[in-house]
Amino acid sequence: MTDDTLSPGPVTRLLLDWSEGDAGARDEMLPLVYDELRRLAAMYLLHERRDHTLQPTALVHEAYLRLVDQRRVNWKNHAQFVGLAAVMMRRILVNHARDRAAGKRGGDIQKVPLSAADEPGAPQAVDVIALHEALDRLGSIDPRKSRIVELKFFGGMTTSEIAEVLQLSPATIDRDWSFARAWLYDAIGA
Fold first, then answer.
1. Which of 25, 93, 112, 157 has a 20 to 30 Å separation from 7 between CA atoms?
2. What are the residue ranges spanned by the domains of the chain?
3. What digits encode the pLDDT tens for the residues 28-54?
């Protein structure tokens, strides 16, 4: 998830300083991670309907506001920060979809197979609420597999990036992804 021009070193250093109470480190970090968060937001929105009212910039700003409001996070590294940003963006999109469905009864929600996550860059709409509910059910059975789906499908992370965030081997990520995708396919009926 990082550019070649941006090593995780400075971000990790600022996260550690922030964990120790340095609010200035938090403010100094935003310009270093903004483009990365915007790419992450754009990946999320690729899976949304074309007329979505949230734009990547608005999604980044909302997620960042939630991230900086975290009181008890023991920041360890850049990958952990990006993983938490992915969680925040998912929650924002789910809340947005619920609000929209409550207003329109969900009549225009489209379903997409989870195999779409294996084809990055292909814009496709997703029933975010159904996926969220299925992920919650999977999370109650196997939290790790649910987290892998979240990072891969919503966060657009690669297997090696997920392995770094979760501190697991890439082979374990691949096995868990295959299982979770099949489980969700059955749970959603997509």
1. 93
2. 8-188
3. 988 888 888 888 888 777 767 666 677
